[in-house]
Amino acid sequence: MKPFLDHNFLLQSDIAIKLYHQYAKDLPIIDYHNHLPPEEISSDKQYQTITEVWLKGDHYKWRAMRAHGIDEKYITGDATDKEKFLMWADTVPYTLRNPLYHWTHLELQRYFGIKELLSPANAEDIYLECNRQLSQESHSALGLLHQMKVEVVCTTDSPTDDLSSHKAHLASKSPLQMLPTFRPDKLIQLESDNFQIELSKLERCIGSEITSYDSFIAGLEARVDYFDSLGCKLADHGLNHLYIASSDKINLDQVLLDAKQGRMIDPVASDTFKRSVLNHLGECYAQRDWTMQLHLGAIRNNNDRLQQLVGADIGCDSIGDYNQMEALASYLNELDAKQSLPKTILYNLNPRDNAAFAAMAGNFNDGITQGKMQWGSAWWFLDQKDGIEKQLDTLSNLGLLSHFVGMLTDSRSFLSFPRHEYFRRILCNLIGNDVINGELPYDEDLLGTFVSNICYYNSKKYFNFNH
Fold first, then answer.
1. DSSP 94-106
2. How many other β-carbons are positioned within 10 Å of the β-carbon of residue 135?
3. In DSSP terms, which residues pair with 154 in a beta bridge?
4. DSSP summary character for residue 123
5. pLDDT (tens digit, 9 = 90+) per residue, 431-459?
6. What's the rounded Cα separation, in Å, for the pair 179 and 154?
7. CATH assignment of 14-47+138-463?
8. Does 14-47+138-463 match 48-137 in CATH topology?
9. What is the pTM of this model?
10. For the segment 250-294, what is each residue's pLDDT rounded down to a tens digit?
11. What span, in angstroms and rounded, lies between the C-alpha atoms of 137 and 40?
């Protein structure tokens, strides 16, 4: 029987142990997709309580607490930070076999040196000890990132953001690179209540009224240039699915005007507008050597009761059951035909689509850029041990795992970076088992290079971040 969360956690063979400790463990982290608040990085925020930095905004934990029967007051409500932490501690013993059990204790170990299992019996002592350490410089926002050897973080930002935090951080000469990511979803979803608000913000950003489709595209491109001037290298789109344009002539100027005035829009016209915008943006990204990320398949804000009580994005999203391939193939093909397909990372949320997404990515490599088309790391509901192993196996079968750009946190929490360690351990264990089974040769140089590239060097080369 192995001890829980020891030095060789998840590593089941001597080969896996050697690969992890000699070739993966100490590599820096490039976190190319997350939702960290940039203002907390630029101000090097010092957190008052473990609740503030650990539970606030963590949808994974909120869902578990609701399932455990914890009242919303202690999740997103007006309970004190201590009360919320105690309710999380009450929940943790019931998360056995959920990835939260691993993540919780990895985070307590790595950031605070706490090796006890969190429970109601020790919750108050752990709360006080974490708060004591959080008052130290080593546990500020930048301190927490430094502890994990984070080299680059790419935040997720609206096109209308002034990026003042990124400017301030750049001026600070910090060794950490914090770069923006262009996320225009709210300016593409015409039917959303946010569209008119975001359009008005865009008009203020560019200093002129948007009255036509062409002026809308010009406004978006101006913001792409602004992001590019501050080192942006990635765009991101979180969509249910891609869109198919109508073969009929659609007046895109009228579609925009109707959306601006809050009028109903024919679904076919709406999809045609969105597809046209995405086509233009894809070309913009390719011209600037950006990477386009497509996160596809979430069905969001399913619980009206909780949304009315708390708001959107509070842990009531799920795996959508959408048809993805036809529209995705059409979109990628149209950009490729014009030699305007940027480097692209595809992420699926429905596990039934694993093989389909991995195969689709392989259709559009150009023979120039190694791994140009990526099938991204296991995303959201899939970024646990089983999901990571299945993603690695499927990519190995249908693509070149050797060129994979590896893990990311996709998190709002500064304490989530042990997920990179989690991924690295799983990867090394998978390779170790293959060697034991005679499916891979035991060539330490070959395998060590393979592992270190996936964990760090591939992403460093692929995104070409310039300090």
1. GGTTSHHHHHHHH
2. 12
3. 179
4. H
5. 999 999 999 999 999 999 999 999 999 99
6. 5
7. 3.20.20.140
8. no
9. 0.97
10. 999 999 999 999 999 999 999 999 999 999 999 999 999 999 999
11. 14
Q: Is 451 left (phi over 0), alpha (psi -120 to 50) or beta?
A: alpha
The amino acid that residue 278 corresponds to is L
Domain boundaries, the chain: 14-47+138-463, 48-137
Q: Which CATH number fits domain 48-137: 1.20.1530.20, 3.20.20.150, 1.10.2020.10, 3.40.47.10?
A: 1.10.2020.10
| Secondary structure (DSSP) of 359-377 | HHHGGG--SSSTT-EEEPP
Q: Are 375 and 346 in contact (CB under 8 A)?
A: yes
CA 308 to the chain's CA centroid: 26
Alpha carbons 59 and 64: distance in angstroms, whole number: 9
Element (H, E) at 345: strand 343-348
Please answer whether residues 82 and 51 qualify as being in contact, where contact means their C-beta atoms are separated by less than 8 angstroms. yes
**Cα gap 66→76, rounded to integer Å:** 11
User: In terms of Cα–Cα distance, which of 170, 196, 166, 80 is closest to 127?
Assistant: 80
